[in-house]
Amino acid sequence: MAKTPVVVTEEDYKADPDNVQKIETRIPGFPDAEPLLTYVKVQHVDDLTAKPAEGIETVPLLVPVEKEREEVVLGEDGEPEKNDDGSEKLHVVKYWDFEPRELDLSAPSLKKLVTALKPFAEKSRERVVALPSARPVAAAAGANPARTEWLRKVRDWALNTAPAGQLGGWEPKEKGRIPDHVQAAYVKSTGDAKPE
């Protein structure tokens, strides 16, 4: 939320001590002097007008920004074209990116924004957001922490301490499925039973 400090009077401080801060400033070199007092109220500010306002709304926006990037020039054969020095030819391509921003707007400024966007909003369509498949969600919801920890121990054993002969030709990896015969070899070697 955009805010700005506004200097107010002692009377404002007495009338609204919860929203007005009293700031004491000591004068360097004069330890016995009374401190200077300043009263400050923090007010919400309209980002468009920079004026304090009540009822400020924070409006999220995706702002189109034109950007540039270098791309390799491809010949008719689909292969990169070369410069005289043998390096790949590059050319600059312009493209639109959409940066997330936000504005704090009072009711009149928000109305201006809505009015300006109206012809575009009328032609817009609902944004389609791809949802993750139900399978990973269901698997995560039913995950067994004890089994996950047990499999971590099996993998650690296979990677670090298991005799090669007990892995039955399986090559231990940091990720991926652990074969049943390796899990059985871990139980036989350590006595650490597989959790239900």
Helix content: 25-40%
**Number of H/I helices:** 5
Overall outline: extended
- Describe the biggest sheet? 3 strands, antiparallel
Folded structure, characterized:
The chain is 30% helix and 27% strand. It has 196 residues and is α+β, with helices and mostly antiparallel strands. The protein has a 3-stranded antiparallel sheet with strand order 1-3-2. Strands 4-5 form a two-stranded antiparallel ribbon. 5% of the residues are buried.
Q: Which key features would you list for this structure?
A:
about 200 residues, alpha+beta, three-stranded antiparallel β-sheet, two-stranded antiparallel sheet, about 25% strand, extended
Question: Would you kindly provide a brief summary of this structure?
Answer:
With 196 residues, the chain is α+β, with helices and mostly antiparallel strands. The chain has helices spanning 10-15, 107-123, 134-141, 145-160, 180-190, and strands at 3-8, 20-25, 36-44, 57-72, 90-105. Helices cover 30% and strands 27% of the residues.
Secondary structure layout:
Blueprint (H helix, E strand, L loop, with lengths): L2 E6 L1 H6 L4 E6 L10 E9 L12 E16 L17 E16 L1 H17 L10 H8 L3 H16 L19 H11 L6
Antiparallel strand pairs: 1-3, 2-3, 4-5
